[in-house]
Amino acid sequence: MSKPIVDIRNLNLVFHVSYHRSWNIRDAFTKFTKDPFEVLNREKDRIYVARNLNLKIHEGERLGLLGVNGVGKTSLCRCIAGMYRPSGGDVELTGQVRAIFSTQVGIQPELTGRENARLIAQFMYPTESFIEELVDEAIEFSELGKFSDVPYRTYSNGMQARLCLSLISAKPAEILILDEVFDGADTFFKEKISKRVLDMIQESGAVIFVSHSPDQIKEVCNRVVVLEHGQIAYDGDPESALSFYNQRSTRFGKNVKR
Amino acid sequence: MAKSSRMVHHNKSMKVSSSKVILNQIFQLAKANLKSRYRKTFAGFLWVMMNPIILYGVQSQVFSKFLKLNVPNYYVFLLTGLLPWIFIVQSMEMCTPIFQSSGSLLKAFPAHPLVYLMAQLVDNMVNFLAAFILILIPILTFQPIDITGLILLPIPLFTLLLGVLSFAWITSTAQVFFGDTRYLVSFGLSISFFLTPIFYPIDFVPERFRIFVELNPFYRLIAPFRASIYSLDSEHFLNQMGLAAIYSFSLLFFAIIFWKRKKNELYFYV
């Protein structure tokens, strides 16, 4: 088998959070003056997103990530994308990552959709030199027409999703991360964009795809990993992984529609 | 649990380009901020410039004519203190909520959060320089200024930018965890305006309190600016620059430590 394009070794990702902390300095000050020992000795909760997690993704693999809400699918993807600093272990990449975690964002709401598309493209395609051509093509594909030249703040969620999805799917990537990105678009556009994203995925080096939709997982992925308690509970082909996930979810009272 | 952690990219072109990419993103975002603010018109540009120009006009009149502060070349003196101060205040107030207000963007794309902060700072720096030049031109016709001081100006500008970046990096990170940080920053800046020798020289401060003013980081960032334009003396300038550099790099060091400790949790709370 070829050298892995993503090689995760003994990854630990821990968040130190406090659910009952003070949310402003005034509150923290009054709590501290009331009982300084309680404030100083209060222990933080630890959320283990990954515990000695090992994962290799090779070129041509379209990996689906499955797991119940809060299990750490998005956090793992963000860690691969370099947004989180691992608490321990190694994340080794041999390609450039393109990732999108939300399709309903604009950078400068006062500027037009086209101007925002240019800015978003700078973040999605940081080393691309033909940004202008890429943006023009994405706008044409999004069918936003004259709306591409009106302020972005007037865009509905669906219009924002159209623009973002058209941009992300404009070119294949070496490592592509798509985290529940189809949810914002309207039904008509969803069909159109699905076809384009699938074509782009086929041409990309490796894909990490997060979705709660079994149909989408089966359509996109050729390998699926099920995450549980910060570790890989199952790694296999989509059909058997979905069946494993369904059994587990049923056990936890969270049935998955098939 | 393994103590060390690594993020390794084997794509050489990516390693080389990452700082270039960040700089390009900062430039593009700052350009978009300016475009959005000026709305592509000269009137928009003038509107943004009015705040520092009016503040300077009013304060120069009040302190020189009404309060009759006995400071030679007061218009130049005030310009070299007030304009950097306005840059500090505007940058701190606009940058402190930036991680919080850019939360959805921070979580949507894998871009370095500093890009948003730096873009805002560059935007403010452009406004500051434009206002500075607009006020300086009429002053130059009445009061001569040593041209060497103007040539040296990029050096104190660098320490000023670095110091403000570090301050803003700390406060914008803290704002994510404590929602009232921005109000405290604003309150602290209002007080600091009177405690920092901006509209009065440090010689006006009684000897026994002067040490506190000397320790004031805002004073340290503004002092070389004044030393280069208002009273250029090479030894004094180098002294002020040295102190400003020590303060700026120390602040940057604290900002980096604070950021590293809080980075992951920031995404969690934002």
Summarize the structure.
The complex is a heterodimer of chains A (258) and B (270). Chain A has one domain (59-252): P-loop containing nucleotide triphosphate hydrolases (Rossmann fold).
Observed structural traits:
heterodimer; A: 258 residues; alpha/beta; Rossmann fold; six-stranded mixed β-sheet; three-stranded antiparallel β-sheet; 9 strands; 38% helix; globular; B: 270 residues; mainly alpha; 12 helices
Written description of the protein model:
The complex is a heterodimer of chains A (258) and B (270). With 258 residues, chain A is an alpha/beta fold. Chain A has a single domain, classed as P-loop containing nucleotide triphosphate hydrolases (Rossmann fold, 3-Layer(aba) Sandwich), CATH 3.40.50.300. Helix content of chain A is 38%, strand content 24%. In chain A, strands 5-6-7-3-8-9 form a 6-stranded mixed sheet, sandwiched between helices. In chain A, β6, α7 and β7 form a beta-alpha-beta unit. In chain A, α4 packs across α5 and α4 crosses α6. Chain A is globular, with a radius of gyration of 21 Å. The two termini of chain A are 32 Å apart. Chain B is mostly helical and 270 residues long. Chain B has one domain. Chain B is built from 12 helices and 1 strand. In chain B, α1 crosses α6, α3 runs antiparallel to α6 and α11 packs across α12. The longest helix of chain B has 36 residues. The two termini of chain B are 27 Å apart. At the A-B interface, β1, α1, β4, β5 and α4 of A face β1, α1, α5 and α12 of B.
